[in-house]
Amino acid sequence: MTKKKSTLLVTGVFVALSSTVLAACGKSSETTYTYREALSSTPATWNVHTWKENTESIIFGYTEMGLYDFKLGANKKGYQIVPEMASGEPVDDSANVTPEEVEKYGMTSVADKEGNVESGSKWLINLNKAACWQDGTAIKADDYVNSMDRFLDPKMQNFRASSWYDGDVVLGNAKARYQSGRPIYLGYLDGDGNVVSDTRADDHFYGSAYSGFAWIDEKYSLYGLYKNYGIGEGVADVEDVVNDTATWGSSADPKYVDFNENTAALTKYCTAWTYMLANAFGMTVTVDPNLNTPALIDANTHWTGAAISLIKSNKPEVAFSSVGIAKVSDYQIALYLQKPSSLFNLKMQLSGNWIVKTDIYDANKTAIGDLNATTYATALDKYMSYGPYKLTKFTSDKEIVVEKNDKWYGYTDGQHEGEYSIPKIDMPVIPDADAQLLAFEKGEVDSISLRAKDMKKYATSPYLMYTPGTHTDKIALNSSFDKLKSRQSAGVNKTILSNLKFRQALSWALDRTTFVQTETAGSTPALGVINKMYVADEATGALYRDTDSGKRVISDIYGDSKDGYNLAKAKQLITEACTEEAAKTIDGHYVSGDKVSLEFVVYNEDWRTAIQNHIDDFVAATVGTPLEGKFEVTITITTDNQKLITAGNAELCMDIWGGAQMNPYGIPDTWINADNRTCYGFSPDSETIEIDLNADGAIDKNTEVHTNTEWYNLLNNTDYSAAKADYKVRSLILSYLEEYMLKQQYFIAVRARNTVSIDSFRVQEGTTEYQALVGYGGIRNLSLTQSDQAWADKANAGLDYTK
Q1: Residue 432, C-beta contacts closer than 8 angstroms, at least 6 positions apart
Q2: What is the DSSP letter of 320?
Q3: Cα-flanking dihedrals φ and ψ of residue 44, to 5°?
Q4: Within 13 Å, how many C-alpha atoms sit on residue 655's CB side?
Q5: pTM, whole model, 2 decimals?
Q6: Could you give the CA distance from residue 461 to residue 443 in angstroms, rounded to a whole number?
Q7: Beta partners for residue 82, in sequence order
Q8: Which residues pair with 302 in a beta bridge?
Q9: pLDDT exceeds 90 at position 62
Q10: Among residues 120, 229, 109, 251, which one has the least CA distance to residue 175?
Q11: What share of the chain is helix, strand, coil (3-state, %, to 5)?
Q12: Which pLDDT band, with edges at 50, 70 and 90, does 280 fall under?
C-alpha cells in the first residue's frame, strides 16, 4: 500500500550521530537530533523472558538485537534477512547428529521413515565476536546458554518460555525442562479400566473441568465437550462448574480440586458429567459422588466418582543439560531441535533474542512461595542494553529515553552505513489521545496514529501513511439450538440464529464499505478472515489471498460481490429462514409472530458506536420480512465478553485475531482450539471437510475426508506441515478450513485492520511503500531532516498537515 509523502520533505539529508557545537559571538549552542514519540503509559517491565503486552516490548525493540534481523531489501523492495548477533548463516549440522544426542536432547521427531536424522534438526550458530553489553563486556556462547537456562527454569515460570516449545522451532526437551518437577494429574483408571501404575504423590482424588480422563478420551474434558457439543438437559448443572472460576479456574489457568477435601465440588462435578456424557455421546450413566473402589461399578449404567477422577503425580525432573542448546566454543552454539525446521523459520525465531545480563538478573531474584521471580528490566539500574541504543532514562509514567550505544558493533563494522542514524529517542508519556494529537500538531512529537474521529480533519491530508495490519475483525455467532433455546423466553426467540440462512442473511446485510469509511481509520472491508497481509510462500512472498485457493474462498461464497453487501438477498434469506423455522415442530423453534432478541456482548464503551452500526444494518434487513418490527439486538458492555461468548452465554461478539504474518496456516487454531473458539456450536472434532488434494475428481475417504481438527493437525504438525508439503497444497487445505467456517457462517468477516498515521515534516522513512515484515524500514532506516533547534523554529511558525 502506497504511503503518501509530503513534497516538502528534504531527501538525502545526513543526520550526524554526534552533536555539533557551533561558536558564535562568544556563545555556544548544541545542535541535536531527537526523535520523539508519545507513549500512553510506561511498561512495568521489559524483561524479554516475561513480557506480555506490546507496550512492554518498546524498550528492548531499541536496546536489544536478534541473532538475525529483517531489513529492507534491494532497491527498498521486500526484505532481506541479515546476520546481526550471529556471524554468517546458520549451519545445518544434522548429518552429524549421533544416536546419543537424539536421546539426550529429546529429538523425538527428527527421523525420516528410514530412521535417518532429517536436515534442519541441528543447527550451528556462529556468534558475532564484536557483540558486547553496553558496559563493554563481550557476549559469548555462555551468555546464550546461561540465559536459556534461566528462561526455561521451572522455578521462574517465565511467560515467554513457550516460544521455545510451541511453534515451528522447538528446542529439544525445552518443555520437559520448563515443566520439570511440577505436579501433573493423570486419570486414576486407564482406558481398560485398570488402576494406573504411576506413583501417586498422595492418596487423594482430584478433578478439573479442563482435563479429561481415560474412559472417554483424555483430550475430552468437561469444558471441551461443553464447548464442542453444547448441552441439552442439565444446563445449569454443567455451567455451575464451567463458569465457577473461583473453584475450577479457567482453561488458561486450571485448578485441580481436591475431592477428598471438597465433597461439594465432587457432587457438582459428578452431576455435570452425567449430563455431559448423555448429551455428547448418548451415554446413560449415573455418576455418584463417592470415591470408593472398585471405582467402576457397572460400565454401562453406574460409575463412582473415582472413575472420572485424577490422581496427582509429578513431572520427572529434567536437568537443563538435556535441553537442546550447547556451547561448542566461545563463539559458537549448537541448537538441537525436537522437529526439523526450515532455514527461514529458524531465522524468524532467532530474530528475537533471549539473552539477559545474568549477574543483574540473578541479583534481583526473589522467592515467591515455591517459585522465583526477578525484577530484571524494571528500572534503569536493573538492566543492561546491547543493541543500537541504550536505555538512559526511565521514569515511570513520565518518560523513557534511549540514546546511541557507542559500544554497539554496528557503528564501526561497515555493515550498517546510513542505518540507525538518529542518536536519541525521547518517549514522553501522554496518556490522553487528544493530548497526543495536540502535541503532534505543535511539533512536540514526531508521529501520531490517527483515530476514526481524527479522519474528519485529516482524511484528505497528503501526508497520511497507511500501514496494513494482520488483524481481521469478525462477528462470532452462537449457532447452538440447545443453548439458544435455554436463553430464550416465551414469545421471545433466539433459536432462529441456529438457522444457516438466517446467519447468512446477517452477513449479506452488513454494509462493510460504508462502515470502514465512516467508523474506522483506514480499514478495508473483509470477506475472508485471513487478510492480504499473510504470506503463503516465504520463498517468493506470495500472499495467501492471491493464491488460486485463497481467491476461491471468496468467490465461492460471495460471487462477484466486492464487499458482500446485498440488502435484497439478506431480506430474502431472512424470509426463507422464518418459513423454515416456523414449519418445525421441535420444542423451542421460532413461531410466526415471535420477537427475535439477540445479545451482542461488547468489551467496552468505546466499541458501542461501531457495534450499533452493524446492528442498524441487521435491523434494516428485516424491513419487509416477517421480522419487521419484531427484531432487536441489545448491547451488553462487559470485559467478560470473551468468557460469555465462549460459554454460549451471548449470541454475538466481535472477535479479533491476527499475528504471525508469515504463517497463515496457524490461524485456524483461533477457532479450532476450544480455549480460543468464540463461535459456540461449532464442533471441530466431529464436523468433516472433503478436499480433493490430488485433483482427480474423486474423494478418497481414507485420505481426503477429515474433521476440521484433523485437517488442522495434518497441516501444521504432520503430513502437510511446512517441512513436508509445498505452499500450494498447504494453501489448498487452509482455504477449505477458512471456507468451511464462512459457508456455515459460524462467524462473519467484517474488516481488515489498517492503521493510519502521520509523520512530522522532518521525518524521513526508509521507503514510501509498505513492505512485508519490515514496514517502511523502521528505526533502522529512519532519519530526521532538521535538527531539534531548527524544527522548534518551524513549529513555532505553525504546522499544517491538512494540505
Answers
A1: none
A2: G
A3: -75, -30
A4: 25
A5: 0.74
A6: 17
A7: 69
A8: 286, 298
A9: yes
A10: 109
A11: 30, 20, 45
A12: confident
